[in-house]
Amino acid sequence: MTTLLNVERVSKSFGGLKALSECSLSVEKGRITGLIGPNGSGKTTLFNVITGYEKPDSGSVTFEGTEITRASPSKVFALGVGRTFQITRIFARITVLENMLVATQRDEGWLRGLTRSKSSKSELVAAMEWLDFVGIGRLASQPAGSLSFGQRKLLELAYVLVADPDVILLDEPAGGVNLTLINEIAQKIQALNKDGKSFLIVEHNMEFVMNLCDRVTVMHQGADLVSGTPSEIRSNPLVLDAYLGGSDEYDDEDAS
Amino acid sequence: MLRVRNVWWIVVLGAFVLFPLIETNPTYTGIGVIALIFMGCATSWNMFSGYSGYVNLGSAIFYGVGAYTITLLSDHLNVPGNGDLFWLIPAGGLAAMIVAIPVGLVALRVRRHTFVVITIAIFFVFQLSAINFSFTGGTSGLQLPLIPWLETNYNKPFYYAALAIVVFATLLSVTVRRSRFGLQLLAIRDDEDRAAGLGVKVFAVKLVGFTMSAFAVGMGGALYAIFIGQIYPQFVFDPIFDISIALMAIFGGLGTLTGPLLGALVLESTQQYLAIRFTNGSVYLIVFGALFLVIVLFMPQGIIVYSSEWLSRRAARRVEGALVVSGETS
């Protein structure tokens, strides 16, 4: 198995708060990797570091052998790392289809946008295909701001997919979503994985993570605690300690 | 094939072309020239600020640079006081674009409210420079070559030149809205960080948009300078201009195509007319302010958005009504 995304001993502090301390993680090609940990353990900060939204204080991030530690978010995306946000972010005042078109060309020269129209025929076809894939194709001409919470989650997934990234980082794809939709999202992820997409998923829903992921990494207080298959993680006493608060670490727990 | 919408545009353009031929009173055609200059500037301003949400309150920088450029160039090149001056107008626009690059590099590093404040600050740097440098003539201003045309026909060339700028700015605005670039500006308005995470090179897109929008504003300033014949720092680097342009676009509908055109036409011609009508005191400013308050209070998204929403609501009610009559309530 080749490593697609590799995070090597990354540290990041916000003032006095150490959000990440020497955290390491790897995502293998064609696998679904889960990332769990109590609130405030640094999962979202790690996502931000990988995708260029935060610059780490030390450590390195490589994607397919290319160093992306301090690359800009648009550069990271252009290389093939897509992500969704914990608090869903869509472009509310343009249509659902236009939302898709923003992402269709992930690596276009910065002046190219001036000389081309909003969309080509093939891009429109691809955008509609992905909208249909996540099941909101009929809403294509609606302003994205009129979508419900669940539909926004699906749209965010669809417009990350339309750019055809190699690895997709999902920040709580099942958060605040009803059970039917959770199962639907899980099925979509499995289908995409079969087609060769790799995933890194942050999620609090244990059932979702344990059923879906090939490997799981547990984070605790900014560092990676253990990594292993879901069954290994389930039986590891360290994990239970991290979630319930180990004896001597209890006081640091509420730093979220 | 001509669509109904396009026919409307042609009818409106035709009316503007015919106006100075029918209305020959120089007072009114003069109002027309100024109103058209503001329409062009507001449309160009909206092409960046309306689409991207970066409200630029320093657009008088571009206006003033355009005005000073044409004045200094005409002096330098010894251009006589005739129609040849008009050929220098694009130079005013180009100079504004060149100035926009460093201004944008500084101001576009910050967002939203901070951006607004920074553009105002940079604007005052320009105004103070124009007052204090010697090549600008300081507070006594600069004279342009006198154009010895008869009063009855004096306004016409200016009117059509201003109309050309409006058409240019409108076509540019349409083209941008239909391009991938325009879509990226709209994405930046809605969520800049998310756009960056989808491969949009946000800083480059903002800088290009900002610079492009300076062109027509610079041309507007250049045309204004030769229309008036003399320029002063306080009148071409005018803080009221900064605010007016933004208010006109907001009044009509920020980010829409017709909004800034309509807003500038209504507000500027009303203001000019009231200024002439009530020569004593500042009565016109009170009326003007009241009109503006009414719009902002009752139609915060601007006239265009308000009326289109009102029309679609009415249409929806009709459909609902029809369904009730035929017994197909939802």
Question: What's the gist of this structure?
Answer:
Chain A is α/β, with parallel strands linked by helices. Chain A has helices at residues 43-50, 73-79, 96-103, 112-115, 121-134, 149-161, 179-194, 206-212, 230-234, 237-244; strands at 3-14, 17-28, 32-36, 58-63, 66-67, 81-83, 167-171, 198-202, 215-220, 223-228.
Keywords summarizing the entry:
heterodimer; A: about 260 residues; alpha/beta; Rossmann fold; 2 domains; 6-stranded mixed beta sheet; disordered C terminus; B: about 325 residues; mainly alpha; two-stranded antiparallel sheet; about 0% strand
Give a structural overview.
The complex is a heterodimer of chains A (256) and B (330). With 256 residues, chain A is α/β, with parallel strands linked by helices. Chain A has 2 domains: 1-80 and 165-256, P-loop containing nucleotide triphosphate hydrolases (Rossmann fold, 3-Layer(aba) Sandwich); 91-162, no CATH class. In chain A, 35% of the residues lie in helices and 24% in strands. In chain A, a hairpin with a 2-residue loop joins strand 4 and strand 5. In chain A, helix 3 (96-103) runs parallel beside helix 6. By secondary structure, chain B is mainly α. Chain B has one domain (23-298). Chain B contains 13 helices and 2 strands. Chain B has helices at 4-22, 26-52, 60-76, 89-107, 112-132, 151-178, 180-196, 202-228, 233-236, 239-252, 258-277, 283-298, 303-325, and strands at residues 142-143, 230-231. Classes of the chains: A alpha/beta (256), B mainly alpha (330).
